[in-house]
Amino acid sequence: MVPGVLYIPTRLWGFSGHIQTIIHSIVGRVKCPWPLGERVYLALTDGSTLTYDLYQPLITTVEDDITVAICPGIGNSSESVYIRTFVHYAQCHGYRCAVLNHIGVLDSVQVTSSRIFTYGHTDDYSAMINSLLKKYPTTNIVSVGFSLGGNLISKYLGEAKRPANIIGGVSICQGYNAVVATQWLLKWQNFHRFYLYVLTENVKSIIMKHRHVLLSDDIKQRYQLNERDIAAAATLPELDEAYTRRVHQFPTVKDMYSWSSSLNYLANIQRPMVFVNARDDPLVPDNLLEPVKQFASAHNQTMYVELANGGHLGFYEGGLVYPNPVTWLDRAVVSLIGGIVMSHNDLLVAKRTASSSMLLDYGRARWGLLFAVLPSAAPSVRGVIVAVLKLLLSLFVSKPRVEFTADTPT
């Protein structure tokens, strides 16, 4: 549990992970706002057109310049209801937000290359981060990912050296290991196949929506695609065998899943990370959570938060039947972002204090050396030199400045 952010699920149905997940999929959030922002278009080197939506903070009393870089779940975008609710809540707490629109998801943006989004390619998210740093070179960035987006930001932070402006990340309801997760979802128990079918149809609908580009004669010949096999795919592994792994040139689907899994990159993350999961998430079984628990217990920059209830991206709270407009997840993630920012500021203060102490020790050593060589018969000269040294040291050694962030809501 996040300290100070108590979770009480909606009384009548909030203790069922299945109901929480289904309501999230159908309704999203209640009384959802529509935050106003600007859409940024990026032309990538492979010919793809990438967009992200940029939202400015709604209050200006927060001293820190923080940008929350959001990666939504599979087939989601800035127009998804749960993303809009979170963005508005973060804006109200003084944070700028940038939301990646997965390629192919938005009806208003045409696909311009032979691909859509994938489970493990982080180039799109990296392009958004680079664009943000061009617009705001001094901003500090907190990466936030939901479901598939949690996998992508974790892999992004662990697979290569990333900009120093990124000060931490929050991952929500990801599965960490695509190989094991897919094997588990292929089972018929506990509606697993039903959820897999919904995910498959979601991705398939995106491919078919842009089939005039993605399944053109040239593309089908280049990657040996069979449109009938794609249309007939009943599970994600079948769809990925017929389309995804061929377009991205993986030898097998298992190889692609293994390469895409964030679990294989966690050890290389050099930033504070928070992982949030629910035990009753019907898409993420308990055995997928054990590795990240062990990882968090062995790394002091990592925190793992597990709740008994919440489902997959649900976390509805309050009321008997009708939940609150803002979920526990929205409140908790904004609080976690505030904690990451405060931790970053504390670290900067500690570094400045240590640097000042080292410089003072160096100054004292130089004084001692100077006193050793000064003639004892010239006390007036010695007094003048000491006064000058004190003046110079006061100019070069500044006192550490303590920075404060806005109070984090609870």
TrEMBL record:
Query: Where does the record place the AB hydrolase-1 domain?
Result: 68-318
Q: Which GO terms describe its biological process?
A: acylglycerol catabolic process; medium-chain fatty acid biosynthetic process; medium-chain fatty acid catabolic process; sperm capacitation; steroid hormone receptor signaling pathway
In its UniProt record, a GO molecular function of this protein is: monoacylglycerol lipase activity
Q: Where is the active site?
A: S147 (charge relay system), D281 (charge relay system), H312 (charge relay system)
Q: Name one GO cellular component term.
A: sperm plasma membrane
The text of the family note is: Belongs to the AB hydrolase superfamily. AB hydrolase 4 family.
The name this protein carries in UniProt is AB hydrolase-1 domain-containing protein
